[in-house]
Inverse folding.
């Protein structure tokens, strides 16, 4: 398999932050998509000092592949602690690929209310879109083989919170079965 | 992917498919801990859906759920119906005692006919123990069965919603004392709950009631047996009151409802023997003044109406986990 040099997630994050500082409206609210997008959004939300609390979406109940894959093993509750109605929302995800996750997130968001505008911020765009979806804020682009999965990790412990990208054959490790 | 098939012997358990995933929900007996926790965790996410402007998610859009109630029930049927509708499934309610059964159609003929109408899931309530198992063995592989109560045997979603309620208020199962009080003999709720409490590691499960209303050999389920209610609920964290099931009783098991209330009815005075933060649960419908005093049922320690709300989320979780298997 062809190995690909992956960009430094911290540098991508800095670039994304620069774009958001420059162009994101001050009255916009932020929502991260579980899991990687929510981690990233936590960081961005803190650095940007957004007044409204951060929202979190777990799109498991809105996925279009439920019939093939069933329910994700660890669904987390979505929490939108502000009124979505009439708001400018910046959705945050780690990796933009097919666009299906973003579609699901937008569908879920509309069940909370009608936002005035939705924008998309992603750490990395790997191409391969299957839907007409684009990001307005992009940390960087990367080209990886179609079959591989690009995963964002967040470190725990001493340098806790540090973000790294890696290629994986599987999604994040599941909770070990006791 | 989720559960290792070797766990609890998937081959023996008719609820699990070849990959060890939950195909039917018939009883909590023999369900591994991971599956119970998976249902509870998923229910937690569905609970937040109930607080939104739009209370539906599109997960089961285009699926057909048949509520087959061979025995009357209002709350359970309604909460299953709401759960399915909040998952965007189409729900068909059949009160079967007034339908084909009176024309002599057998149970499995009824199921075959509904299968031909492209049913994806059956929610079955029946007075005969084992009815849901029979249907689960009969239906084709893409169909799912949830037991909504079969005779005295099991009522797994009630057991799961009780677990959910206990976890919601007590956070952790290890270290709890749970007393199940009253007509244990006729209660499928009690059985379903006892199995799942012990599986989740509750160290002290007690059953409390008169000897005539305790099943023989109940102590083999890993519970402590108390004939005296004051002893039985002393220092408990959770009290689960059961409904006195007059309609299931044959012969004189009890002196009278008044006598029962005196010995086993939960009054404020008896409740004071439990821990100060003990919660009171009841699967409903309640017989006020028989197994529970109104002052307790409507009091600050009662979580009985919250159980109903949690029940919808738990049924949504069970339905979507089954349909995704």
């Amino acid at each position: 398999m062809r190995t690909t040099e992956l960009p430094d997630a911290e540098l991508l994050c800095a670039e994304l932050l620069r774009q958001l500082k420059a162009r994101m409206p001050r009255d916009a609210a932020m929502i991260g998509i579980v899991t990687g997008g929510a981690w990233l959004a936590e960081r961005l939300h803190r650095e940007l000092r957004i007044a409204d609390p951060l929202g979190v979406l777990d799109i498991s109940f809105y996925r279009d592949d439920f019939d093939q894959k069933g329910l994700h093993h660890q669904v987390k509750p979505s929490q939108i602690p502000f009124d979505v109605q009439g708001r400018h929302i910046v959705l945050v995800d780690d990796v933009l690929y097919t666009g299906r996750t973003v579609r699901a997130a937008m569908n879920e968001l509309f069940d909370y209310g009608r936002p005035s505008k939705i924008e998309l911020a992603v750490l990395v765009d790997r191409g391969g879109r299957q839907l007409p979806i684009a990001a307005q804020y992009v940390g960087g682009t990367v080209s990886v083989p179609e079959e591989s999965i690009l995963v964002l990790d967040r470190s725990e412990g001493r340098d806790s919170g540090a973000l790294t990208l890696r290629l994986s054959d599987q999604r994040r490790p599941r909770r070990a079965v006791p | 992917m989720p559960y290792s098939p070797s766990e609890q012997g998937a081959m023996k358990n008719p609820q699990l498919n070849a990959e060890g995933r939950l195909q039917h929900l018939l009883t909590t007996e023999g369900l591994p801990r991971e599956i119970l926790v998976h249902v509870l965790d998923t229910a937690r996410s569905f609970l937040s859906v109930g607080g939104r402007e739009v209370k539906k998610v599109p997960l089961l859009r285009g699926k057909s759920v048949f509520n087959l109630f061979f025995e009357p029930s209002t709350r359970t049927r309604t909460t299953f119906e709401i759960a399915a509708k909040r998952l965007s499934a189409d729900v068909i309610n059949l009160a079967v005692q007034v339908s084909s059964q009176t024309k002599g159609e057998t149970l499995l003929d009824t199921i075959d006919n509904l299968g031909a109408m492209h049913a994806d899931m059956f929610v079955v309530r029946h007075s005969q123990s084992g009815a849901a198992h029979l249907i689960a063995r009969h239906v084709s592989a893409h169909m799912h069965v949830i037991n909504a109560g079969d005779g005295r045997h099991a009522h797994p979603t009630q057991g799961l919603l009780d677990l959910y309620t206990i976890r919601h208020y007590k956070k952790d199962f290890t270290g709890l004392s749970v007393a199940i009080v009253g007509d244990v003999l006729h209660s499928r709720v009690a059985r379903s709950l006892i199995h799942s409490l012990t599986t989740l590691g509750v160290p002290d499960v007690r059953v409390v009631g008169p000897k005539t209303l305790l099943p023989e050999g109940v102590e083999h389920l890993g519970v402590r047996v108390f004939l005296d209610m004051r002893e039985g609920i002393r220092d408990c964290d959770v009290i689960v009151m059961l409904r006195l099931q007059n309609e299931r009783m044959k012969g004189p098991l009890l002196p009278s409802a008044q006598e029962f209330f005196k010995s086993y009815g939960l009054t404020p005075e008896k409740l004071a023997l439990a821990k100060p933060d003990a919660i009171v649960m009841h699967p409903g419908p309640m017989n006020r003044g028989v197994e529970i005093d109104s002052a307790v049922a409507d009091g600050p320690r009662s979580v009985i109406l919250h159980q109903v709300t949690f029940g919808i989320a738990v049924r949504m979780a069970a339905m979507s986990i089954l349909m995704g298997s």
Notes: Residues 237 and 277 of chain B are 7 Å apart (CA to CA). Chain B is about 35% helix and 15% strand. Residues 304-323 of chain B form the longest helix (20 residues).
